[in-house]
């Protein structure tokens, strides 16, 4: 009797152990357990930890509640300003209702992926190229709203959506590069012109100061000569203003003993004076005669040089041997 009782107790213990092993389940911290009893959803969702189910009547499905990072494949589309682009993005979402994620949709990951691709193509067609390149935050918010509306019915919440990259055609890249280069050149010219304007104002102020103090111009000239000579150049260029040369020319005194030399009148010419007008003749208006230019006075050194040149010519040619002309007193 005792032996049979011990065997019965051992069998019951073995059956209990087998049942406990089949009914015991462990739900992790980031998971939730959804129980189906004979195919029907149980209202309660099993929290993390140890739990028990009926081995034959119930089935436990674990749903991950972590944030899922899902890359969206690159989608090619045409923007509103007729530019072909290729855009890829990434979606961050998580399950907020484990029961709806299993019952409302067959595969919530695949559904979110397909909906993301469709929404991305739609947002490309509604946006301009400049918005895709510079106003991505607004596009991300719009794309998040487009995904979040249907996803809430699946027990899924969209955490955020980010556009990763926008691929442009090579022709469009070259055009944008030329545009950026032209804009930078325009800004460089504006800055250069502004610098020239400021420099001209400062130079005008400096010229006003130098005009009030003539010695300042001479000091500035000496500073320029010092700066040039500091470079150990073999040639030193000293600028002399033209006004200084003209001042020296006007201030030069005339040599002593210099007289004005006028050219003699040609032989055989006489001064013609106008006689009285004849009777009946109409008076003729005398035309103004422009004054003859007066040659500049010749200096003493110049006259002496002319004399020396004449004596040298006479010494070289000798005395004239031509016969003198006959006169009445000379015998034939």
Walkthrough of the structure:
- By secondary structure, the chain is α+β, with helices and mostly antiparallel strands.
- Helices cover 47% and strands 19% of the residues.
- The protein contains nine helices and eight strands.
- The strands form three sheets. The chain has a three-stranded antiparallel sheet.
- A hairpin with a 2-residue loop joins strand 2 and strand 3.
Break the fold down into its secondary structure elements and pairings.
Layout: H1 2-23, E1 24-27, E2 31-37, E3 40-46, E4 49-52, E5 58-64, E6 68-78, E7 84-95, H2 98-103, H3 108-126, H4 129-134, H5 136-151, E8 156-167, H6 170-212, H7 214-229, H8 242-251, H9 300-317
Antiparallel strand pairs: 1-4, 2-3, 2-5, 6-7, 7-8
Helix pairs in contact: 3-5, 6-7
Gyration radius, to the nearest Å? 58 Å
Low-confidence stretches: 259-286, 316-332
What summary fits the major beta sheet? 3 strands, antiparallel
The helix count comes to 9
The end-to-end span amounts to 209 Å
Structural class: alpha+beta
The count of DSSP E runs of length 2 or more, i.e. the number of strands, is 8
User: How much is the average pLDDT?
Assistant: 77
